[in-house]
Amino acid sequence: MVGVIASCGLLLHSLLAGLGRRAAGFARKVGEIAREDPRRVVHSLKVGLALALVSVVYFVTPLFNSLGDSTMWAVLTVVVVMEYTVGATLSKGLNRGFATLVAACIAVGAHKLAELAERFGVGEAISLAVFVFFIASAATFLRFIPEIKAKYDYGVTIFILTFSLVAVSSYRVEELIKLAHDRFYTIIVGVLICLLTTVFVFPVWAGEGVHKLAFGNLDKLAQFFEGMESECFGENTGTDNLEGKDFLEEYKSVLNSKATEDALCTFAKWEPRHGKFRFRHPWSQYQKLGTLCRQCASSMEALASYVITTTKTQYPAAASPDLSSKVRKTCGEMSSHCAKVLRQLATATETMTVPPPANLLTVSAAMKAAECLRSELAENAAILQVMHVAVTASLLADLVAQVKEIAECVDVLARHAHFKKPKDARRDVAVDILSRGRSGPLPDVVIQCAE
Fold it and tell me: Which parts of the chain span the membrane according to its record (predicted)?
């Protein structure tokens, strides 16, 4: 008996210890999520605040008596409409309000037509069923249209739901118009509470998220080129395997940014003017920039895979050492130029200033180096003995062309978004040219860009 009790005690102790470890692990995970982005904690409190405010409509007797059981629709609206960003909440709120209004009006019209059809011998129930069938089918088909699915999919869903509920209820409910009014008013109350809470209590703007994602991607691409310069083409390059290096991992998050970017851009288009972001800000240009960044990251993935596989820092001594050294130096210059351009573009995008005209010179230098390298690779037969050098150089030259497209895209974004012009733009150009050893007056085209 004592042994059984002891066994049960040990089992209970082990269970409690296991639960304690699980609870501690869960608490650590919650803490990490909260520290990673404190806005998540704020959003959770905002949802609780919105629900507490909307509950007043249900708790106050005069309000409840005027709206009746439809008051609960306000609570449900807060639950389904409240989103993390202002744009997402605006999108769902406006979609829900407008879809409810349109659906209620059409449902009341269907009810009147069904009553009229009954006078001609067609049953009201049959008429309502026919209306529900055709309208719900047509609305569902609209969800397959890409433009509608991207912006109004939630609104179409709410339209189908509201129309079906109101139309079907009209067969049993006598005061149909009052029912439609009450549901519409309560939904509007819920939407307004969501919007007020989201906009005025520590707002999280989708537009800022798009902006941060854009210059963050540019920074990550720059890190890749900086790593290539120091780890693969530098004078003190080692011979260790490059697998696991940080610069060969940073670009991967850029490849997976499309879904987040598209969602944020869609929600940003719903947001009013805020901060530095004007009404009708060119959000689509951010998507074009993101596409170019992902294309560049995809080329980086091909180059990184090749670098890891063949260990680029080891060139065969028997295969024209002078040529290998020259190729290495040229690749290092291309990487340095590209990294500098991307860093400047990231800074310009982050501060919403026009990119410095020095980018033109840096990109041109990188393009010239890439063209010279292509010619060298095509004309020198000795390079065939070190094919991995040719592959690396060719992939890197392709990346230079993609960086040029990214720079042009940022310039277009700066024009459309009315980025401010830095006051010291001309000085930056002069310093950059002088640092390259150029003497004499600045080129006219550079002066015009600076002005």
Answer: 41-60, 72-91, 126-146, 152-172, 184-205
**Backbone torsions φ then ψ of 97, nearest 5 degrees:** -65, -50
pLDDT recorded at residue 320: 44
Indicate whether 438 belongs to any domain.
no
Distance, CA of 380 to CA of 373 (rounded, Å) = 11
Is residue 426 a part of any domain in this protein?
no
Please report which confidence band the pLDDT of residue 335 belongs to, taking 50, 70 and 90 as the band edges: confident
Helices 176-200, 72-81: crossing angle, 10 deg rounding: 40
- pTM flag (> 0.85): no
Same domain flag for 366 and 219: yes
Residue 187 and residue 68 share a domain? yes
pLDDT tier, 168 (very low <50, low <70, confident <90, very high otherwise):
confident
Same domain, 297 and 335: yes
| Per-residue pLDDT at 442 exceeds 50 | no
The CATH number linked to 239 is 1.20.58.220
Domain count, the chain: 2
190/238 same-domain check: no
Which two tokens mark 215?
């210059």
Those residues whose C-beta lies under 8 Å from the C-beta of residue 237, and which sit 6 or more positions away, are: 230, 231, 313
| Alpha-carbon gap, residue 379 to 391, rounded angstroms | 15
- Examine residue 448 and state whether it is found in any structural domain, yes or no: no
Mean pLDDT, rounded, for 134-161: 92
Is 442 in contact with 360 (CB distance < 8 Å)? no
Does residue 327 lie within any of the structural domains? Answer: yes
**Residue ranges making up the domain that contains 186:** 36-200
Q: Is residue 158 located within the same domain as residue 239?
A: no
Q: Is 217 in the same domain as 273?
A: yes
For the chain, the average pLDDT equals: 80
Quote the CA–CA distance of 178 and 169 in Å, as a whole number: 12
Q: For residue 117, give every residue at least 6 positions away whose Cβ sits within 8 Å of its Cβ, in sequence order, or none.
A: 124, 127
Extract the tokens encoding 416. 């459309």
pLDDT at residue number 448: 40
Percent of the chain scored above 90 by pLDDT? 30
Q: What residue type is assigned to position 21 of the chain?
A: R
Burial class of residue 173, CB neighbours in 10 A (0-12, 13-18, 19+): middle
Could you tell me which residues come within 8 angstroms of residue 426 by beta carbon, excluding any fewer than 6 positions away?
442, 447, 450, 451
* Residues 407, 409: Cα–Cα separation, whole Å: 5
